[in-house]
Amino acid sequence: MRSGTSQSDRPPVIEVENLTKRFGGKAVVKDIDLEIARGEIVGFLGPNGSGKTTTIRMICGLLHPDGGSGTCLGYDILTQAEEIKRRVGYMTQRFSLYEDLTIEENLVFVARLYGMKNVRKAAKDTLDRLGLASRRGQLAGTLSGGWKQRLALAACTMHKPELLLLDEPTAGVDPKARREFWDEIHELAELGLTVLVSTHYMDEAERCHRIVYIAYGTIVARGTVSEIIDQSKLTTFILSGKGAPAAAKALTGADGVEQVAPFGSEVHVVGSDAQALKTAIDSVKTDHDIAVRQGETTLEDVFIRLMSQAQALEK
Ligand SMILES: Nc1ncnc2c1ncn2[C@@H]1O[C@H](COP(=O)(O)OP(=O)(O)OP(=O)(O)O)[C@@H](O)[C@H]1O
Predict the structure, then answer these.
(1) Class of 235-296 in CATH
(2) For the ABC transporter domain, which residue ranges apply (predicted)?
(3) Ligand 1, closest atom to CA 50?
(4) In the chain, which ranges are continuous DSSP H helix?
């Protein structure tokens, strides 16, 4: 960092306004505004097909927007795509390396793509950092899912990008490997990298500094996990006891009840009007052997609500 320049003085790493993309006449990203500061880890969440990948690709210069403007790393997303691509690490949903090349060959290949000077050294340093030096000759396709993703992350950070755009980097990876992957993301952020990461996993959303939730191409919530839960104004009651499954059936679709979801032997009942929700639960209490207590609303409860609201508006 230049002397005399504080973190807050520096321009945002991503600053886009009214970003819009249409495919076949249909807008799949609509007037999105997004600002991300240096060093932030921002989670990009939303249902399938809501426009996350399309937005990420517009930000890193891989896709030309139909509307809107903005900068990424200080470069204009409309006119300086090449500058942006060079400074960004982009990891796609699917394993993007060659399964039939060795681990080392893949790293050398990627280092060449990024125009790095000493490709052999870059590959060797990356192998050492990953602890994969002894397995350098192994075909990448034979790695476990978790290792494939770690290799892909290492490959897309070899050229020392300032921004990482990760599109569902841990889809289908087991929890331990996902946790390790996220530890690495935090280490990279501590070194000053900014990260925008799309995910469908709630535990991963909770590991982000901030979350942006998109549905049908529109951002419908943003903030920290607790801000998003507070903004939702949802109330959650938890039903337990023998009668919980039957009570859940009776409550489904009742006035004031917006979500009914079993969690193990308990049932979570969620609504935005606390009084109406309580009245509905009281009305089934007499006929069912249940205990009721107030619970914490979860991020998942909020996202399900946001998704249903957006779906209703779309119809
Ligand atoms: N090249 C394309 N041509 C036509 N339609 C496209 C194209 N790319 C994406 N779409 C459509 O745009 C919409 C948004 O897709 P996008 O991949 O951005 O969503 P997403 O939020 O990343 O979804 P997921 O969580 O499933 O990865 C979808 O309806 C998709 O089918």
Answers:
(1) alpha beta
(2) 14-241
(3) 21
(4) 52-59, 81-87, 103-113, 119-130, 145-156, 175-190, 202-205, 225-232, 244-251, 274-285, 299-314
